[in-house]
Amino acid sequence: MISISEAIQLVKHHSFPLLKKAHKPIEKSGGYKLYEDVFSSINMPPFRQSAMDGYALNLHDNLAYSLIGEVKAGDSHQPKLKKGEAVRIFTGAPVPDSANAVIMQEKVLVDGSKITLQIQININLNIRPVGEQVKNGDLALPKGTKLTPAAIGYLSSLGVQKVSVFKKPTIAILNTGNELVEAGEALTYGKIYESNSKMLQNALYNHKYYDVTIHKIEDDYNKTVSKLNEVINANDLVIISGGISVGDYDFVGKALEELKVEPLFYKVKQKPGKPIFFGKKDDKLIFALPGNPAAALTCFYMYVYIALQKFMDNSDVELPRIKAKSVSKFTKSGDRPQFLKAIYNTGEVSILEGQSSAMLQTFAVSNAMVFMDESLSSIEIGDTVDVILLPQ
Q1: Is residue 179 located within the same domain as residue 275?
Q2: In which pathway does it act (predicted)?
Q3: Which of 350, 346, 335 minimizes the C-alpha distance to 382?
Q4: Which run of H or of E encompasses 87?
């Protein structure tokens, strides 16, 4: 059994960027990173563009101008302005080549077809020049840029339809346990509804990992070996739920050994989630999580999350940690470090009732975990504690 810090370091050390290429439609590329530089194929803006609603002018030495027309966003006509003439113009509309300034409408007095400026203005005022944002052939976004909504909007404005991105891992979730039945089936004596796969799948979806398949393993050794071999060969990451303990019908550990999966650690000194396995086979990573739901989710956040971030070459690979003042008391049993479900709010944290590894009800309303080191036996109201913020 190893410490939490040792387990975290082993996951970090053995997890690497995937560095495989994929092609995505721009609208489905959110959360990915660019695999290669993207260069603009147009000037942006592609024409001289008005920065606001107002009047485009051909400047002269007088504050009075003759109004000869209008240009809206999307118009393609080109009014020809003589000195002292103006056209009504709107934000984003093309500025006529014969205009050399735009004045905002709030600084103009209008009298029929005549306008009078209330201020003196300079040449090129409020005109966005061609290529102000990016020029044709220039680097638009460099390789490695994470495609945020703003990045996707920017590339879309340049007419980009598809992008090359770093591929996200293919992930398999395996459920073990003959006691598990699916929702909608009859819940006969001795059976429970399966929840871990849906929980883990949605934890992955929450971080924009969508290439996820779910598999069921019966409590049979040969079938366990066969199914594990299949999914390890087909995926970058395998997450097993349950079956990793040492009961007579827990076959996962023996099956992984037969398949020559290299064990990197098994059992971590923590509560909940002590019986967690982490291993690899070639460049494939395998986590076997405890079957108890709260323990499985805790291990996902503490260890699987790190591997996911490393796959995508992200810099922040652990969930954020902060200090907060406890508004609850808690007494720990045993000497293992403990992760406590909690609610964090503006510098204070409340430790919740129901910390059992089998219970998800408390986890369902948590937005944080309080980390209680092995040196602590209790937490008192007003104590400063370590808080791990959970994804929302």
Answers
A1: yes
A2: Cofactor biosynthesis; molybdopterin biosynthesis
A3: 350
A4: strand 85-89
pLDDT at 95 over 90: yes
pTM of the model: 0.84
Burial class (CB in 10 A: 0-12, 13-18, 19+), 181: middle
Q: Which domain holds residue 230?
A: 4-19+168-311
- Token pair in block for residue 48: 């001289």
Are the C-beta atoms of 282 and 237 separated by less than 8 Å?
no
Q: How many CB atoms lie within 10 A of CB 106?
A: 9
Find the helix or strand (DSSP H, E) in which 307 lies.
helix 305-311
Retrieve residue 297's tokens: 């989710």
Residue 316 within any structural domain of the chain: no
69 and 86, same domain (yes or no): yes
In the numeric block, which tokens belong to residue 276?
């967690």
28 lies in the same domain as 162: yes
- Over residues 246-283, the pLDDT tens digits come to 654 478 889 999 999 999 999 999 999 999 999 999 99
Which pairing describes strands 378-379 and 284-289: parallel, antiparallel, or unpaired? unpaired
Q: Which H helix or E strand runs over 287?
A: strand 284-289
Dihedral through CA 222, CA 267, CA 389, CA 292, nearest 10?
50
